[in-house]
Amino acid sequence: MQPFLAHPFDSDRLHEECGIFGVIGVADASSFVALGLHALQHRGQEAGGIVAHDPESGFNSAHRFGYVRDNFTKADVMGTLPGPLAIGHVRYSTAGTKAATAIRDVQPFFGEFHMGGCAIAHNGNITNAAALRRELIERGSIFQSSSDSECIIHLMARSIQRNIPERMKDALRRVEGAFSVIAMTRTKLIGVRDPLGVRPLVMGKVGEGFVLASETCALDIIGAEFIREIEPGEMVVISRGEVETSRPFGPSTGRFCIFEHVYFSRPDSIIGGRSVYETRRQIGVELAREAPIEADLVCGVPDSGTPAAIGFAQESGIPYGLGIIRNQYMGRTFIEPTEQIRNMGVRLKLNVNRSLIAGKRVVLVDDSVVRGTTSRKIKDMILDAGAAEVHFRIASPPTAWPCFYGVDTPDRDKLLAANMTPEEMRDWIGVDSLAFVSLDGLYRAVGEAEGRNKACPQYCDACFSGDYPVAPFDQLERGFRMKSGSETAMNEAAE
Amino acid sequence: MQPFLAHPFDSDRLHEECGIFGVIGVADASSFVALGLHALQHRGQEAGGIVAHDPESGFNSAHRFGYVRDNFTKADVMGTLPGPLAIGHVRYSTAGTKAATAIRDVQPFFGEFHMGGCAIAHNGNITNAAALRRELIERGSIFQSSSDSECIIHLMARSIQRNIPERMKDALRRVEGAFSVIAMTRTKLIGVRDPLGVRPLVMGKVGEGFVLASETCALDIIGAEFIREIEPGEMVVISRGEVETSRPFGPSTGRFCIFEHVYFSRPDSIIGGRSVYETRRQIGVELAREAPIEADLVCGVPDSGTPAAIGFAQESGIPYGLGIIRNQYMGRTFIEPTEQIRNMGVRLKLNVNRSLIAGKRVVLVDDSVVRGTTSRKIKDMILDAGAAEVHFRIASPPTAWPCFYGVDTPDRDKLLAANMTPEEMRDWIGVDSLAFVSLDGLYRAVGEAEGRNKACPQYCDACFSGDYPVAPFDQLERGFRMKSGSETAMNEAAE
Amino acid sequence: MQPFLAHPFDSDRLHEECGIFGVIGVADASSFVALGLHALQHRGQEAGGIVAHDPESGFNSAHRFGYVRDNFTKADVMGTLPGPLAIGHVRYSTAGTKAATAIRDVQPFFGEFHMGGCAIAHNGNITNAAALRRELIERGSIFQSSSDSECIIHLMARSIQRNIPERMKDALRRVEGAFSVIAMTRTKLIGVRDPLGVRPLVMGKVGEGFVLASETCALDIIGAEFIREIEPGEMVVISRGEVETSRPFGPSTGRFCIFEHVYFSRPDSIIGGRSVYETRRQIGVELAREAPIEADLVCGVPDSGTPAAIGFAQESGIPYGLGIIRNQYMGRTFIEPTEQIRNMGVRLKLNVNRSLIAGKRVVLVDDSVVRGTTSRKIKDMILDAGAAEVHFRIASPPTAWPCFYGVDTPDRDKLLAANMTPEEMRDWIGVDSLAFVSLDGLYRAVGEAEGRNKACPQYCDACFSGDYPVAPFDQLERGFRMKSGSETAMNEAAE
Amino acid sequence: MQPFLAHPFDSDRLHEECGIFGVIGVADASSFVALGLHALQHRGQEAGGIVAHDPESGFNSAHRFGYVRDNFTKADVMGTLPGPLAIGHVRYSTAGTKAATAIRDVQPFFGEFHMGGCAIAHNGNITNAAALRRELIERGSIFQSSSDSECIIHLMARSIQRNIPERMKDALRRVEGAFSVIAMTRTKLIGVRDPLGVRPLVMGKVGEGFVLASETCALDIIGAEFIREIEPGEMVVISRGEVETSRPFGPSTGRFCIFEHVYFSRPDSIIGGRSVYETRRQIGVELAREAPIEADLVCGVPDSGTPAAIGFAQESGIPYGLGIIRNQYMGRTFIEPTEQIRNMGVRLKLNVNRSLIAGKRVVLVDDSVVRGTTSRKIKDMILDAGAAEVHFRIASPPTAWPCFYGVDTPDRDKLLAANMTPEEMRDWIGVDSLAFVSLDGLYRAVGEAEGRNKACPQYCDACFSGDYPVAPFDQLERGFRMKSGSETAMNEAAE
């Protein structure tokens, strides 16, 4: 099955690899999880899984390829997942992997320990997973999946701690990289974020129950009240209506993923006390200030470019309009008629609003440029429709470095910005002007009035800056070369 | 299978019942039809069908429930539909019908005459279908479907004319109501519109081939050039690269459906020489003039209210924003958790952008009010999110009369505007103010500077005015009571 | 979907084309029909259909490809078929047809007349169907299927009779060939056999209700009591617990299909007052008398050759054994490994019982020889297993003529017996001896002590004798040449 | 999905739980495995799996519920299983298990060790699995399935041996009970039988390749030559065309499962140099000698009672006939009509051949009596059909003890023979006479002229004798009470 795509040009976008959700202390916990995962579907469309626990029937699980709405809405699936405690996971299909994902790779993962079972759902990426896996196999562990996240459950199985939360601490202390984890035992819901808090995790309350989720939009769908974010380096263990907190990794300062604000999170979520929509609109305002242009119309590339386009229009005074209409039914690949249709792939997803565009100087606001192939196609469509000029404005800085913290990125040599100057990119795409918001402008849009603190950056912005807050151990082993100087910096930081 | 819905509150919207598409003179005609139907999917989501003709294998057909993208993208379906000539149809599931649609009801319909086969696809509604069917059965015709459109093919089978286009004229002269029909023989593509031209039909050119389609957006997707609309009362017969035109019903003046501008057609289509998007934006401008209000934010109810919201914001100077975010993955019904979630149905489809709404006086622009139930739910969500005031502005006049020309409408007693004054509606919905664009305002927005010509209205606006341009014969037999005076008017018109 | 096959070498067998079943006056009539069709599955494996009538919901139907057990056992199908009156049909996939069967070709067929609806299920073949179809289309009938049986319903639609049974008489009087028909109106169950009674039809009683079925084994499965056969040329109309009988075609003498005894019918059915099993065993006895042989073991080709093998063993005194074991799970085609497996197709279905066969002189009893390809493969297997000698004994005379009365037969030039003498056949197959039961021997086995009455044969044995009791009109038009002299005979018979 | 059943009264039969098959050194090994598993389908109908290895793409696997013919015949499945080495497994659905089998429980199981991957397929039952599993979990192993067979792969993962065959020896030395195992590494095919050789395993040759299989019938289907049985306690490691043999458990004397001869194995298989068919026929001969009766007809309960029925008829001189006809299309459960049909479940599967049975004294030969419920139903059908007398002859001794070596048996209190004398059983079933073959008679039929050697029985016959050759450790822990005296005997044997 070819998955539906969230963004019309999904194949030319960075992707969050997962969304996670858990709830305890409610009747029919799995139904809440299904709803929560549906709200987090933008974080992973390939597959999803739910594990639930019921005192009578024990742990039950269902893992399925495809959308939440197509699997976890059926009585014959949901009826097998009773009980007051459940967690779930949606995952993205990692582009470029040789083999198709097997259903065994779909989380949550489950392990039976002698003190009882435990299921975990992981969002992020373990940068020393290959090394850990090698060691565990040598010691006699049998991996069920090709997923790096499975290391966590094997490390837990081998811990000598007497209870599951302590075993999880043991395990996660050996793990490097970015992780937000939701886990469950027969009686506890557990949430943890890595010391830098790269990936999001929030806590809410619904009735007498508690909820953990990747984003606040998943609280909204079930009518849960947003309490607070789990802090970087914090573990919460929720049981019998009480929340215990601890800091298994010692004190740490967070460096949240700034790209969550730019693209991954839903515009109606709240991150770090800020509306994602408002941040994106503000990026448009910054762009209009940093890279003003004379034009007749501002359009967003739907849907992710829309808030920044509105901000750009408001700041510049140029009218905003729907120059590109998205096909609501976009989906699978059609059989191409023998007579060539120019840009057929794009036409299936978008149509240009010709009467609006014709003869106009158009500012086109998009969220990012990855390979750049999509930008060229959109430019073609706009020009075919008779635009007088096309000015691209990008709501993020140039994406020049791969992410190793749970985002699927092309290799560096595929990233346009890693291989061209902005002028070269403008010419290659073929537009009249091209501008990216500056890194400082982006920091201002997320509320850092002074911009980026170079000495101690407030966010993980490695994809823009090449400044990796955690050494990508496995990648370095495979030959990845970091920006000169940064390894030293990390070594120092590690001392 | 529960169909996906085009509009988040589709069950409280009027629905176009069909989209039609045909092409001749190209290789792989059926692939073009699949693309064209995909672009017309908003006109019918329940089922679709394609008939193709190939000199070697003759007529072949495929009829399927579900989306075009899920059926007519597969090699095992499309491979059975070879040839240079094909037509197709998408249909909407008529709400409220007792029985589910059978696959036999899915068009195109096909009949084998002794001079060869003929397939037809019909958009519209035959107002004397029940009477015709009764007569045909008495004379020995056997109906395959419960669809009224099948009458056309039986009337053709019994015509004494020697060729199919003449038989089609014979048949359509006996039919009353609204119809745009695309038909095909082994060598000809045929298009007809009823004398009033209530439903749309356009012609385009792709390479050496010709295309007929409900809307221009279906020409765009295959890169076809828009030539012109088929005129009210016109028949075109296309064969060997030539287009013959005739007027089987004599001279007539068109009365196109004005609701196509308001809601049915896609915003990127061109109707009557006008951009649908621009018309809708202009309705927003009219609304801002007719019903101004002091407020902090203008939002559209996604997606159909958006263009009018942009127009309202531009005319009023109030900032435009995305106050309501649509879930891109909306779909089937989830199992409701035991603990009641207020407005769960709505939450699956929309989420309010709380940070943007909170504390603001909000103007909410929607396309229409049918039953009004949806308007209440949206108002609840907006207020829950902390809006200070909610002002509804509706981009159409009050919908007070059912449509009998191919649009699925609730009975009159279910139409809010048929039973309440605007003030009562405002109170029942529970908003601070409520205003509809006036009928004249709507006419101005579609380019009639003088508004509606009462003596001889330029459009069919029966759903707003109760002024039915064709007597709904079957409905009158079943006891439907028209607006007093209008029957007389029609009788006079008929003389 | 590749259908499962009833006989291991089904593709080299003659096939009955249909089984029919109807019941009136019971609760849940459609459940009885499902059971009855299941018992008649050997008469048609490709597809099946059921029409039921319920006073509340009217006529409902379901038509499906595949086995009865896979379709008409599901609550979501059966729940749509309520009511006390239902009929059903299973059909065989006619080999050699260019196009795949469409679901529209699956019976029962339904027609709405002005006095109400009527569904019909037909077993047999109409020998003048092509001519009738041509005439009906010229008069304006639209055919839904490519099935000849549909003529009957169109002839009925055009009859001027005032009730459905009379219309059916009108229609069937115009039809030539072999037909057993079960039909239903809203209140009546109707059964008819053609004047010669070529195809079977029996009547039974279950509780207060009445049953019509192709064979008695379908009465057994529902615990119905066998009343009697419908007579050749008889029509029964069953309503309100009463059976009316009439003879619409005047007096006639039956000529039942003798191959029903040999192969088509189930061994546990009763035909003409005789057990099919016993008749087949008796054929084996005749064979042992007509073509005795010295041997060590008698085996049947499973399953249809088994009863005759038992009879042969009993008459000859040679021990009976299971020399060939049938795979109970036989089914679809497997992917053939690169290294050639000799006779893989056969191995999937049968395995030789090597230890039993090795070194023995084996008598192999099979029901018939059609193309002969299967006989060769079985001989190969038996010899590979080490048999000393192989003697084929065939429980029917040489099949030298095609059937035009509802049995799927290869063209004459594909029938081995039409092109070779018995000696040539023996050599071509490669066995030590080959013998067919004589036509008189077969007649004796079915109870005609004097053998075949040449002047006035008791059965239709056209496939053996070339003596066609009804002229195959359409076939003659297409160029089929009958045995010299037989046309004259028929003309005389018709006078 | 409700599985099809191999025996018409499968739910009242003992069941072999698995069939296994492996091949090395051929192109398209997985296609051979699919064929082999198809031939072994009678040993397990619920699910099947294949693992294949290809030097390019490594290990690939497919596990599916349902028949081999429905899953492993499809190009999209088989195409994912390339390479010259593959193994497979079919499994039976263990009746009475609370939860449905998960796909994770379907073998072969796979483990990645640091020296490479290994897949195993196990037929049998590990009698100390619960204890082993407990220990492994305490040491940090994570089980993927609820299957006891998974212990083997975890024991292997923790072995300190440097190659996989040695690790397998390590693991199997810790395992108690009955096992035939086929395993594969990247380059080796491995076969092992437990010291008693309770479950079968044979070796064959196809072209240059080697085959391991549960039964010889699986060699026949691929045209492989039967070489020999793997001996009790033997391990073979096949690689590069060479077979290495070893005896990891030291010297041992086999005690093969005698029920394989009675029911589990296919009649066309060869076991211990004897034809299964001939053995079963011989059991009929023994029965006729031990329990003669005056009667008119001998019938087998299809299909497993047939060979013994033939033997009984031959020895007694009473004619053999097909008194019970099996429905070839039996399958899923039909919806029961409102009016009760007596014994509907039975009627779906079998029909009595009334004309043959009526008025006769019938000897009915069946393979075994487990719960006895089926015997009663068959007796009812035979009497309903008018039989004068019914005499049951059973081709095995009374089944009075559960099997713990890989056969699914009801608890002891459900076994009719554990709770009644033969006379009570006769009365409870309601037949005129009932006789079981004696244990010595059974031994004679399998070729032991002197009958059973009490001091040192030649076979495992625990289900008849209660004499368990291996102490059922887990069962004893759960409270199972062995026949008094037998524990002592085993303890002695163990010293």
UniProtKB/TrEMBL annotation, chains A, B, C, D:
Pfam families the UniProt entry points to: GATase_7, Pribosyltran
Enzyme class at the top of the EC tree: transferase
Superkingdom to which the source organism belongs: Bacteria
InterPro entries listed in its UniProt record: GATase_2_dom, Ntn_hydrolases_N, PRTase-like, PRTase_dom, PurF, PurF_N
Active site feature: 18 (nucleophile)
E.C. no: 2.4.2.14
This protein's UniProt keywords: 4Fe-4S, Glutamine amidotransferase, Glycosyltransferase, Iron, Iron-sulfur, Magnesium, Metal-binding, Purine biosynthesis, Transferase
Cofactor note: Binds 1 [4Fe-4S] cluster per subunit. Binds 1 Mg(2+) ion per subunit.
Catalysed reaction, written as an equation: 5-phospho-beta-D-ribosylamine + L-glutamate + diphosphate = 5-phospho-alpha-D-ribose 1-diphosphate + L-glutamine + H2O
Start and end residues of each Glutamine amidotransferase type-2 domain: 18-241
CDD domains attached to this UniProt entry: GPATase_N, PRTases_typeI
Binding site for [4Fe-4S] cluster: 257, 403, 460, 463
Protein's UniProt keywords contain Isomerase: no
Reported cofactor(s): [4Fe-4S] cluster; Mg(2+)
This protein's pathway: Purine metabolism; IMP biosynthesis via de novo pathway; N(1)-(5-phospho-D-ribosyl)glycinamide from 5-phospho-alpha-D-ribose 1-diphosphate: step 1/2
Binding site for Mg(2+): 304, 366-367
Stated family: In the C-terminal section; belongs to the purine/pyrimidine phosphoribosyltransferase family.
Protein function: Catalyzes the formation of phosphoribosylamine from phosphoribosylpyrophosphate (PRPP) and glutamine.
PANTHER family: AMIDOPHOSPHORIBOSYLTRANSFERASE (PTHR11907)
Protein name listed in UniProt: Amidophosphoribosyltransferase
